[in-house]
Amino acid sequence: MSTALPYIAHFDLDSFFVSVEILNNPSLKGKPVLVGGYERGVVAACSYEARKYGIHSAMPMKKAMQLCPHAIITNSSRADYSRYSRWVTDIIASKVPLFEKASIDEFYIDLTGMDKFFGVSRYARELREIITKETGLPISAGLSSAKFISKMATNEAKPNGFLEIPHGREKDFLWPLGIEKINGVGQQTEQTLKNFGIYTIEDLARTPLELLQRYVGKWGESLWEKAQGIGRSQIETEWEQKSISHENTFDRDYTDLQFLNQELVRLTEKTAYALREDEKLAGCITVKIRYSDFETTSRQETIDYTALDDQLIAKVKDLFRKSYQAGRPVRLLGVRLSQFIPFTVQMSLFDNNVEKLNLYKAVDDIKNQFGSKLVAKASALRRKEHPGDKEEGKR
Amino acid sequence: MKFIVSSSSLLKQLQHIAGVINANTVLPILEDFLFEVEKNKLTVVATDLETVMRIQLDIEAKESGKVCIPARILIDSLKNIPDQPLTFNIDKNFGIEITSDNGKYKVMGENPDNFPKEPAADDTTSFTITASALITAINKTLFATSNDDLRPAMTGVFFELDKNGLQFVATDAHRLVRYKRKDVSGPRSDNFIVPRKPLNLLKAAIPANEDELTLSYNNNHLFVKHGTTQMSCRLIDARFPDYKVVIPADNPYRLTVGKSDFQSALRRVSIFSNKSTNQVALSISGSELQLAAQDVDFSFEGNERMKCQYNGEDLVIAFNAKFLIEMLSAADSDEVNMELSTPTKAGLIKPVEQDENEDLLMLVMPLMLNQ
Question: What ipTM was assigned to the predicted interfaces of this complex?
Fold first, then answer.
């Protein structure tokens, strides 16, 4: 066991989508900019100028426009988001041994043990400067002994700042903060705790654990530990990835089964492509449905290990059929594959899956060479891509 | 209504049919046994709407009547009551009072009129088979059925009858078992698919002896009768895959190995294989068979060599060891033959000696080795 003090840095690109839009169109600089769908949909990101009007991400676009009618809505650089994200990832990967890409614009970096060679703090600052210098994207960072503290430090440091919480000073930083600053404390938990007179993290830390568990259930324990400055979660590196998923929030709500099935095929195809690129087979499928009222259901099933589109699609459609409440408007569909094993093919007596596999691999090759949007199953070809859709892939 | 019954014989009979009842049922009444009393006979029925099982036993009763009794609580109590005659008293509101030497127990029953009706045995065709032959057939095929609900035909055992015999076939698309009985004669050429659950229940409810069972079937159901035990089940309404075309007719290479040696070697080596694929590679060269497995994630490796008889070209072929182990268990002979051709074609497994009335053939598709 290593006895080195843990150092975890959290890096978060400042209003990432907006920053990319500004890089592509410098005239947007200094203006209230919103990224997201026009018609309905939500604010995916907003510039700091827009935040002055009380706008925050995940706010309905309509409401944002009421708050700041002259805001500029854009998402013209959508295609570049993941390119820039990969660029940042590559820089980080070249500089540190152990990191986790938590989302498109967020990274955790394990700098434990690095203090023997460099000042950890100086190293993190320099990394931040390198990223901004090379990509032109502003990024904020936090450094501390635990993931969640670093993330909170980043939030305090934003925009374009750096905050270090030295070992032993965690409570000085955490305790004055409101409980809503803890990642994962939503409106409901916040309200519940406030009803019991718990407003700050210090209040939380001074509440007996048993009482806290009674207030918020199972979650009480990890919440209480966090308030004490103890974080248990580890850096999850990319090569330990546990699932691949794609989900899409539509520009409007749909009840049309044909459309929904088309979307399922399209999402499954994308996910299966990623699976084969990783040379894996999946043993579990999850289908996620979010209805217009935000009620979200997901249903998963164990399957025979496979990486074949048609087998996955059949199962995805089946899962959807079993869990979809007919007639209810759907705002989001998602497909997730998990339980990976290294690529092996159990040949079948009745389907020639070797031939099928060769077909899919040939299609994958075309995608790799000419772009992933060039070839798709006919059933997944759909209306022209809607600017209002908000699609997310995750590994 | 009132009747007296032996606690141990009631428990024994109920345990034969309790497996029909699912843990989570849609209709609460499906958690009940239906008790029907008539002329000193008690008939008990359990159903899950697909499979119905019924048993009968002798009791003492003056009147006849019916009631539904919750199954779980009845079985739990019978298990804990020492062997003795029990008195059941049922009132007009289907309240049930059980009196034993130890005390009195009460439970609320349900209206028997609400219990689902059994399927009618209309237009059936019948044949007979010994209990032991049927149970052997179930044991040799059931393990190869599929769990994939998207391919319902493969989730059961295919019964294929004709004048010269009866064939049982099961497959999960990766392997296939065909078990033929020549001492049974079907009334005509016909076939149907029986789901897994009723076959499992039959295996447990019927002793594997030489008693003759009567099997009757129509388009939708199979009915099995053995003495006072009866079962009916819905057949799977799907087309069984055309399995005959996938059985290789002329695999040129024959490997002969001792069954239990091969099975033990597979068991040991597969411990070191990848837990999901259970991949074991067989390298056959001359009279030597090598088994090799590895799990790269954990750096595990297992290797063994054993003697064999082989008449073909050197060959490396990989299989899911779990499949091979299960198939070898189904072969009742000291030695088995594996007939092979190429690393991407199905391998056949046959017992070297078989009873003249039996013919067991199994095939398994290989795993494709990483190039």
Answer: 0.76
